[in-house]
Amino acid sequence: MRGIGPVVASEQQATQQLSTLRRFLQYLRPYRKEIPIALTLVMIGASTQAIGPFLIGWSIDNLIARGNLRGLLLILGLLGLIYGLGVWAIRGQIIRVGWIMQRLLAQLRQDIFTKIQSLPLSFFDRSEAGDLMSRLLNDVNTVNQAFGQTIAQMLGNIFSLVGIVIAMFAINLRLGLLSNLVVPAMILTTSFFARWARAKFRVTRQTIGELSAKLEEDIGSVREAQAFNRVPINIEEFNILNAANRDANVQAVAITAAFLPSIDFLNTLATAGVLAYGGYLAVTGAATVGVVTSFLLYVQQFFRPIQILSQFYTQAQSAFAGLERIFLLLDEPSQLQDAPDAIEMPPIQGEVKFENVMFGYNPNQLVLKGVNLHAHAGQMVALVGPTGSGKSTIINLILRFYDVSGGAVKIDNIDVRSVTQASLRRQIGIVLQDNILFSGTVAENIAFGLPHATQADIEAAAQMANVHEFITSLPQGYTTQLGERGAPLSQGQRQLISIARAVLINPRILILDEATSSIDTRTEAMVQEAIARLLKGRTSFVIAHRLSTVTQADRVLVIQQGQIVEQGTHAELIAQQGVYANLYALQLGTTPTMEAH
Questions:
Q1: If 0-12 CB within 10 Å is exposed, 13-18 middle and 19+ buried, where does residue 215 land?
Q2: Does residue 250 share a domain with residue 160?
Q3: Fewer CB atoms inside 10 A, N or C side of the chain?
Q4: Are residues 154 and 85 in the same domain?
Q5: 51 pLDDT above the threshold of 50
């Protein structure tokens, strides 16, 4: 009974691998016309390899033994033509197959990137950016190394092997049988090492993903690491992951190092057998010297494809491990797909309703618990409350980054789940506390949400955001190149460009997440002025940590533990002497009117 578990596991692995290969081969469908051409070239190349030893053996018996120099010269010329044709065919097959494989792998990368871009935010809540980058780069590169660079050679060797086996049995049945006696041993050896290698290569793919995630995280937070004297700890943690990846690769290499000598030993054993038995047949007159010579050449050719195929099979385990990770990502459900009957969102007027909304990032833990709110078109609604109370979640649901667990979010009385996400988000602008700029020109960053905007529109948006004068003072103005995350601009300058980006799309609903935090007083005044212009005539939701910034809001919603506990204008909430009044007094440094609850 002990052996049943490993057998079942092996069968499951084989089934999974076959399924992975079948899915990978589906990427060949667009190249139906090119594949027959490549296969024809492969067959021509393989045929030339199989003909050569036969002609050499025949020449020894029928030309060299009889002193026919003229006939020998003709055969040498024929061999030159045959091998020349083989070189042309092999070169053609490598180019053709390489052309197909590189396009296939480019499509695979495109599919991965498209999938990553379309996945819901809930997926990224539990995934690391570095690991996703590893799947797109490292795993695809592993597939490229295993298939893209050797697939043409592998196909050629398969056809060569078939041709050689046919020729061997046709020339001498007994020597053919002897030569193939080691094939079962070779198959068992390959199977053993491949099973062993598969597990090790899975570990290498996993550890390189973890290492990439750690690298991406630590590079992005190097400033914080230095500020908090975290550098030695980060180095030690990286060393641990790096060592794990090193050990996994060393173990995988050790398998290959043991596998290739085993195949070489079987090759030598078969050659010795053919030489001994073939020599006996030649001495006794049962076979000619030319036949034995042909067989020795065939045995060398016979085991070369098997060696290459066996080595490829072992290397392919790493590729299969990478493909499994890739297909797991591609199979990740896109939870926020447009409904089959989704419509385009009509021009938004700006009315927003939450009707008994329930939501949790974890199904077993609700963040919002029966939230009801009604924002009229053109109103400024401020969301205040402690960290983790649900303010950002309300914003995420308006943008439909997540779907509600219960209830409904409606804009102009239209459930956001009934419209296409693109048409919804096209009419909503957002300015975050941690604004993100991208490598590219200043103009490209402003036009991020409207890539085909004219230069005049971009400059008009910048003027409205109070950043035009600053941009024109840059060395190349609007064509000035920015680095990663907007370097070398200051926080305030990046914030003003983010506001210009929101201005450009002319949103009907605007979301601001503490857009004036972490900037100096002078820049804050410019940001506040730009925001005031942006808010006019638009429905806006403002997440505020500094309550002094929301005194002019039409409605203030106080959020605690996923519920709206108070709502009203600033003056009304102060008069209530409740939670909001207490928070406001604490921020102003005065005596609280009551205990927070």
A1: middle
A2: yes
A3: N
A4: yes
A5: yes
